[in-house]
Write a structure and sequence with these properties.
The protein is built from 6 helices and 2 strands. By secondary structure, the protein is mostly helical. The protein folds into 2 domains: 68 residues, Winged helix-like DNA-binding domain superfamily/Winged helix DNA-binding domain (Arc Repressor Mutant, subunit A, Orthogonal Bundle), CATH 1.10.10.10; 61 residues. It has a two-stranded antiparallel ribbon.
């Protein structure tokens, strides 16, 4: 299970904030000023400042005496565990819908009646199942 700090880190490490964090990790020996960080990431200074503030709030980054941003704590294992946990939650959330779509398509196949109706039901269920799988992948 994730502890409160891991949950906080996962909430902070959105894709954009992760880009900022990874860039800071590359330059951690010297740190980076806000202007240089914004230039390297091709983002505006207010955007980079927002992400840096989030990283500081999660105790992952700090400012040094010169005002440069440096990585305070390197996170790898916690994030991997958190991503696994997020995937598990997504699967648990969407699996009932996937099972329902598959069950309906199975029931539709059994009493082979009108071929057009059967095709429509199976197609709709397959589309539903594809949407569920896509949502699970998005959550991952």
């Amino acid at each position: 299970m994730l502890n409160a700090d891991d949950e906080k880190i996962l909430k902070v490490l959105t894709p954009e904030t992760s880009r900022v964090y990874e860039c800071l990790m590359k330059h951690n020996s010297t740190g980076l000023a806000l202007e240089k960080l914004a230039g390297e990431l091709k983002l505006t200074k207010p955007t980079v400042l927002h992400h840096c503030d989030r990283l500081i709030g999660a105790y992952l980054v700090q400012k040094d005496a010169f005002g440069n941003y440096v990585v305070k704590e390197i996170v790898r294992v916690s994030v991997a565990r958190g991503l696994k946990s997020q995937l598990e939650r997504a699967i648990i959330q969407w699996m009932p819908f996937l099972c329902i779509f598959l069950l309906i398509s199975l029931v539709a196949i059994l009493p082979v009646g009108n071929l057009l109706t059967l095709t429509l039901v199976v197609s709709a269920c397959a589309a539903g199942a594809i949407l569920v799988v896509r949502e699970i992948k998005k959550a991952w």
